[in-house]
Amino acid sequence: MSLITTLARMEAVRDGRAQPLTTVRHRHLAERPLVFVPLTTAGEAGAPLGALVGTDRERPRLLVVPQPRDRDLRSAFLAELAEEMLPYVEGFAGDVTLEERKETDPETGKKVTVQVELCAGAPQLLVPSAAGVSYVRLLGRSMRFRRTAEQDPDTPHPAPPRVPLLGRWLTHFGERARVPGSSLLLPMTELLGRHWATGQSNLEDQHLGALLAWIDPPEGLTGAEAALRAELARDAAGQLLHPPAGPATDPAFDNKLLAPAVTRHDAGLPGAAEELRALLETQLRPTWEAVWRGVDLLRALPEGERAGERWKRDRWSYTAHRDRVRAGEPPQPRRDDAVTAARKLAARETAQAQLEAQEALDDPLVMAGRRLAGEAFAGEVTEVVMEYTEAKVPRPRPLVTVRTDDGPYLAEGAKVHRVLPDGKAQPAEFVGPVPGDPGALTVRLTGGMGRGKVPEPGSVPEKGDRVCWTLFEHAPRGGPELPDPERTPWTHGGPPGEPAAELPDPVTAEDLL
Amino acid sequence: MTRSPDSRPTARPATPAPATLRQRLAELRGPGSAQRPLDARALAALAANPGCRRRVLLDGAGVDKSALARALGAPAAFGQSQFAITRGHSFEARAKADGGTELVRLLHEQLRDGAPAPAPGSVDVPDLTAGGPEGRTARTALALREASAAGRWALLDHPLLALPVAGAPAFLEPDAVVVHPDGTWTVVEIKSFPVIDGAADPGKVGAAARQAAVYVLALEELAARTGDGDPARVRHEILLVCPKDFANVPAAGLVDVRKPRATTRRQLARLARVEDIAAELPAGTTFDLCLADDGRTAGRPAEELAAAVEAVGAAYAPECLAACELAFHCRARARAEGAVAALGRGLRGELGGLTTVESVLAAALDRAPAGEEAGVPDPTVVALRRAAALRAEALDPPLTGIEAACR
Ligand code: SF4
Hints:
The complex is a heterodimer of chains A (about 525) and B (about 400).
Chain A: H1 3-15, E1 19-20, E2 34-40, E3 48-54, E4 61-64, H2 71-90, E5 96-104, E6 111-119, E7 125-127, H3 130-144, H4 163-176, E8 185-187, H5 188-195, E9 196-197, H6 208-215, H7 223-232, H8 251-266, H9 272-299, H10 307-326, H11 338-362, H12 364-372, E10 376-385, E11 399-403, E12 415-419, E13 425-433, E14 440-445, E15 466-470
Parallel strand pairs in A: 2-7, 7-8
Antiparallel strand pairs in A: 1-9, 2-3, 3-4, 5-6, 10-11, 10-15, 11-14, 12-13, 13-14
Helix pairs in contact in A: 2-4, 3-4, 4-10, 5-9, 6-7, 8-9, 11-12
Chain B: H1 19-29, H2 40-48, H3 53-60, H4 65-71, H5 82-95, H6 101-111, E1 123-124, H7 132-150, E2 153-157, E3 161-165, E4 168-172, E5 176-179, E6 185-190, H8 202-225, E7 237-243, E8 250-256, H9 258-270, H10 274-280, H11 302-310, H12 327-336, H13 347-350, H14 357-364, H15 379-394, H16 401-406
Parallel strand pairs in B: 1-2, 6-7
Antiparallel strand pairs in B: 2-5, 3-4, 5-6, 7-8
The complex binds iron/sulfur cluster.
């Protein structure tokens, strides 16, 4: 935790409410997100208990599995889930814009510009917490290899028609969520935690109710008091007033309310199914409301300038998966081959560096953290001296001196960058501190001034301007390119060969899913 | 799936503590309260926060911390869903089916050492039933010695091991221990979290490894004390058995526990001795709840109990929430004191000598007593002021908390 974040947490303790960690919102929020609040059965992998799902805050769809060990009931749940989610997910596939992209022509091997489709929008799934993201991944894994009766008439326990497709989409959402800064699938706790510092620890921030209590405490309560209530308050019967955000349920709920209700359902008592639905709704509804409250709070923040750029990459990701599904490609394999795995890892690292740079550039408060860490410095320009290269056509290489209170970790010749008024990055080189003048640092501009001898207007700061130089690149690129999967060296497993059709999970009498 | 043997409330230490200490610990618990033996989970938790003398004392004395927390008005939120318990038991039964052959086969398959596979019916399953924890640990020790000499595979189902910790005994019950034909031993942990496509939740695997490391330590202790006295017969790879994918079929993997074993051993050695902590308590200190006849309602006022608990120092960190029954009580105290550690364990190191929220904010906002300013500036304070200034600058406008406080 940076010292600035630590301080913010302490201010939160002092003031009894959360403090801002950012001045803008660093994630794109869709106009019409799909909220998904799942519950799972304790002790079973991938045996859902119920869910609230939908895009309409007032009218979520309640899905319930009255007996989680019953395969048919689970299948029915997944079929309903597909019915609710797929139209939303597929709803963005049709509206496209055309984008130009460089591709290697397979025949000539030359780079050519081609026009490709990019979906104008993309679906956005919001879940309560990081555990919800893992659950989406798990559901995706449990569904994507299943076979429908149409695909395989002999399959035992065929999956309902659209279930494997939903599995592929949820797998895609789950994979995308591993990319830093992506927004196709977001956990509300992380979203809020990125933007506010509470007066409790990171661990406690994983509780959505407690986190919201700090950010927006009810009248008359401090954040600490409200959070304590959200965590622990129970009614006379010992049930939590604020049920956990799932997918795990509270053991007291399982033992005292759920288990007897499931037993009544198993015994075929009239009204037992309705009772179970009502019971699960009591556990789901508060979390549903909490996620939407989080949406409200986040919407009140202006979106960071570069968040849209990252959302565009999410749209690319969505479009690419749409294309794979359309092309009839098989579901994502159980395990990635060596090159795909390395490629994903490299992409995530690049995305992380880009995210860190973009957030800092979009937000003075984030930049403050980088300045404190010695990775950037800001100050007023005290002197500009024009100098030129000694080339035939001399190019401007002005020396700019800045007075700053920051202590950047700079060595002579180090590259630094700043944002020009047109949004482009300008490179410079650190020359050194001004002798006898502590806090004065000189850099030499090395680009971004146009082609002529005279720098373009606005490209060289003037005395009295405030400037901010970063030691990190503004648009960091990834490392060396990785070979195509077909050219994987044998040391890394060799080319993947014919994609072996992944078999569905075997089914045994006592199996789940 | 650790079953703690606390269904036997008359448990007495395996290594008898000196009469005076035993008496003192009994006083701390209060007359009539049975000693709660430590189990592996509690030990792993102890080792995770070795600086907490409060926990060492309460655990060492065998105080029922759940009941204590309830009486303090800060009950722990631990509990297990009956669905999880049922599932856990059914999976463990499944993994141990066929008289242990299945489990030994899984182990043999993982070893890949070229030894012949166990034939059906070739696995001994000695009877370990005996009265009381002492009887059971003795029975386990005997069975281990016999099985090690037999040159055959043997499965010890729920053996009971004793390990002295901080001068008090702990009883540990691994899911199983397998004795190899060469006389070496492997600890088996059976967990109900799934292994999906060959990968399991690393956090859960780590917790299982830490727990198993405690069993390995106890077995090494036992091996050193008995037989040929060779702790090397305890293998440092344990067998972790989990459900495979979405099925109830067991999948197994070997987990090297040398690292958690070394950590746990070091941490346990670091624990202050229960005896010493008890000796420092004010005379008459007791955690006796004075339970009413219902066995639940505490007769002692919460303030009195809280004072007793306060008499021994704690080291609260948010990690306690997942590991210790007293966490909500200790958290409330830490928050009331404004302890920075309540915000995260790492903060203490980051903030040097500043241990309270108030002192950190005072230092950051330049309201520290001038006396401290003299001499060499404290680097922590310098960094804090810089952080506060940068934060204020970025948040201006609007008016920030820090600035508002400055005016
Ligand atoms: S909760 Fe309290 S007693 Fe338990 S380990 Fe933490 S500080 Fe020690």
